[in-house]
């Protein structure tokens, strides 16, 4: 006799099968909270064990990566690729290089990617990968040698119709170019097996900007639904990487006031809002020179708060764009006290489940990352399409597709939120909408 499907029973089983993986447990819990009641009303999903199957990756690939540093020392790292689910398209998702990367983090990211990629409306399966390689302080040559060694093993698992990685934290267009160079050398193929490529290598215009722009577009949809606009809104942002910088750029361009950016050294505070010129300098400093904000604050005549997070600043909108679990209960309370009315997750899972409850109790609109930050992988999907047909679309064309996709994601969230009133439940809407497409595909395949 099978046990009744309850959230507790399901989570107990998941934890037993995946011990010591707290981030993975957390990501599944956030989704299962919406899905268990939904699946109870849909016995076909229960009968086919869809949720159990969806929480088990298709395969976990783990390998040794050996390379030489600039002093000719031999270095060894752990490389990973988790191919999570390819029910609706080739495996797709980013690579992260971070000192503390581990299987729990990658499984949470790969699992979330399943729902996010489904929401984009594009034919994209889900994967995540990377290495416990710390890119900080490494020379270009060291990064190149690491990327080549990493790809030497990974290439055998990739292909434009098989698995298509892109960037994530610590992996930008420099790394993707090195990775693609090695892929091309090994496979003798010039194809779309990686996205986020520089433009001359077959990349798409607007891919670098897409996650941040998409997040800003989603917030505009949220506000429009509440008969408001973004103009004049005070926004607090964390992060100063790919997602945060382009989210800030679009917000400023749309008339909002961006009062903070942050990195692991602390945060800069621009009480009147960052100017375009200040943002340009920060972008150059962070993306080209790869230096901490601490070194720039004074030069830009901005206040710099060493080792602190920006959540105590007065704001109407919040965009956490740095890393997982950066907003716990204390930070959430600070944000509520500071006047925050809506939050969109630019990063993946930056808000803990307890902090989410603080926002829910205070009536703060909450948009989960799988909806808010889907613009990046969506434009990766568009890069794959362009690579297949051998064409480049203009920036305006890609940007219009991105806006349309973010609007479609918003529409799907409304469709599956209880009631289409002002107080939309974006978490439930995104989880259920993302689930249905993948679940129906899995049902159609039978038991595979
Ligand atoms: P980057 O590596 O480009 O930037 C990350 C930024 O966040 C850096 O400024 C980094 O600081 C800061 N940061 C990271 N961890 C912390 C921390 N613990 N405390 C304070 N600051 C921190 O990564 P991305 O911008 O690409 O990614 C950010 C988030 O967005 C991740 O969760 C990623 O998974 C998610 N995401 C990324 C997408 C993409 O297309 N790149 C798509 C969708 C989601 P420092 O520079 O000092 O290291
Ligand atoms: O978390 C994400 O969606 C990404 N890092 C982007 C993945 C991609 O394949 O573009």
Summarize the structure.
The chain is of the alpha/beta class. The chain contains 16 helices and 12 strands.
What can you see in these coordinates?
By secondary structure, this protein is α/β, with parallel strands linked by helices. It is 47% helix and 16% strand. Among the domains are: 59-189, 3-Layer(aba) Sandwich (Rossmann fold), CATH 3.40.50.10860; 210-367, 3-Layer(aba) Sandwich (Rossmann fold), CATH 3.40.50.720. The protein contains 16 helices and 12 strands. The strands form 2 sheets. Strands 9-8-7-6-10-11-12 form a 7-stranded mixed beta sheet, sandwiched between helices. A 5-stranded mixed beta sheet has the order 1-2-4-3-5, sandwiched between helices. The two termini are 23 Å apart. The model has no long low-confidence stretch (mean pLDDT 97). It binds NADPH dihydro-nicotinamide-adenine-dinucleotide phosphate and (2Z)-2-iminopentanedioic acid. The site of (2Z)-2-iminopentanedioic acid has 11 residues, from strand 3 and helix 14.
Counting helices, strands and paired strands, the structural category is alpha/beta
Unreliable parts: none
Order of H and E elements: HHHHEEEHEHEHHEHEEHEEHEHEHHHH
| Cα-atom radius of gyration | 21 Å
Mean pLDDT: 97
The biggest beta sheet, please?
A: 7 strands, mixed
Helix content: 40-55%
- CATH C-level class of the domain at 210-367: Alpha Beta
Judging by the overall fold, what is the CATH architecture of the domain at 210-367? 3-Layer(aba) Sandwich
Question: What overall form do the CA principal axes indicate?
Answer: globular
CATH topology of the domain at 210-367: Rossmann fold
Please list the strands of the largest sheet in the order they lie side by side.
9-8-7-6-10-11-12
**Beta-strand fraction estimate:** 15-25%
Beta strands, count:
12
